[in-house]
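Hi R.,

Here's the chain you asked about this morning:
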Amino acid sequence: MDRLLVLVRHGQSEWNLKNLFTGWRDVGLTDVGREEAREAGRRLKNHGLRFDVCYTSALIRAQHTLDLVLDEIGQTGLERHSDQALNERDYGDLSGLNKDDARAKWGQEQVHIWRRSYDVQPPGGESLKDTGARVWPYYITRILPDVMRGRRVLVAAHGNSLRALVMVLDKLSPDAVTQLNLETGIPLVYRLNADTTVAEKLVFSEPVAGTDVRSPALAGDSAAR
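And the predicted structure, written out as tokens:
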């Protein structure tokens, strides 16, 4: 039984490019972001990966990324589920603000705490812990059962919703997850054991003509996971 789970952060968005806090604001991909999504699909296709079901958020940048990935691997009609549970972290009053302007208004240290802490909320928004509180139940009740039935599952979502998932999969502490950065358009490939723990993790960060890059956290330690 395969028990395959692949996570992909959406490609660069228009507001990523403009250095704006995005959160739940529904903005599209840039040309660079569309190419990142297509490259993610090419990398998955190059490794012969095909899927049985896919999940994404309710936001267009993740949905468009998924569309482009599926187009590249030739599975545009794949069963799909979209849910707000996989949305990006809600940045509340910071949403739509330039990050440099926010630092000028509240100070660099305070903005850094809002962005990188585990359980401190920005004004009117969510912490990473809050984001996990909606991501984890959805993973446990919807995504994980598909994986454990042997279905190959693809998830296209956001930096913080996926950080919450990786925190569980990689058994990261709250301190460790605040240091985790997920690159746009880079597939994270997990194979799970029968007890739902991680058997192996690969990061497809090389161009199609290159080779896989194993996660440093799991290199030589996949059996323990």
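The beta strands are 4-9, 53-56, 80-82, 153-157, 188-192, 198-203, 213-214.

Let me know if you need anything else.
M.
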